[in-house]
Amino acid sequence: MNLLDAREKLAAALAPIEDTDPSVLLSLVDALEPPALMLGWGEPWLTPDTVCFQTGRMVVTAVAGRLEPGAGIETLEQLIVYTLARLRADAGAWPLDAVSGPRLFVVGKTNYLAARITLRVPIQGA
């Protein structure tokens, strides 16, 4: 996969099909309406693999809702299951690297409940 096309291809794999599907945000934002999937790059961004390929770390931040005591974990679990199923169903290669535990995620001074899904992606042309 080309570095310049990776986020767009991931967005296409996760694009909403039904009205109840989460929105997919291709870039960083200063506001969002959960549930949402925010796409970006992880750490390390790229690591050497072969002469022509690197391994990229892409991150899908699954945002379940505003952070409230005791609420939201089930929604976050459903969002993770949904995202992993959509990635498996896509013809592209989206190998799973890790899924973080639930965490605080701040956007525009608002606290959200989220988790990070990290994918290993073969990248060429970087």
Task: Give a short overview.
By secondary structure, this protein is α+β, with helices and mostly antiparallel strands. The protein is 21% helix and 43% strand.
* Average pLDDT metric: 92
Largest sheet: 6 strands, mixed
Quick one: overall form? globular
Q: Let me know the CATH homologous superfamily.
A: Phage minor tail protein U
CATH domain fold name: Alpha-Beta Plaits
Q: What would CATH call the class? A: Alpha Beta
Please compute the radius of gyration using only Cα atoms: 15 Å
Question: CA-to-CA gap between the ends?
Answer: 10 Å
Uncertain ranges: none
How many strand segments?
Answer: 6
Q: Quickly give the structural class.
A: alpha+beta
The fraction of residues assigned to DSSP E strands is 35-45%
* Oligomerization status of the protein chains: single chain
Helicity, as a percent range: 10-25%
Give the helices and strands, then pairings.
Blueprint: H1 6-14, E1 23-25, E2 36-48, E3 53-66, H2 73-89, E4 96-99, E5 103-107, E6 110-124
Parallel strand pairs: 1-2
Antiparallel strand pairs: 2-3, 3-6, 4-6, 5-6
Structure report:
- The chain has 126 residues and is α+β, with helices and mostly antiparallel strands.
- The protein has 2 helices and 6 strands.
- Strands 1, 2, 3, 4, 5 and 6 form a 6-stranded mixed beta sheet that branches.
- Strand 2 (36-48) and strand 3 form a beta hairpin.
- The longest helix has 17 residues, at 73-89.
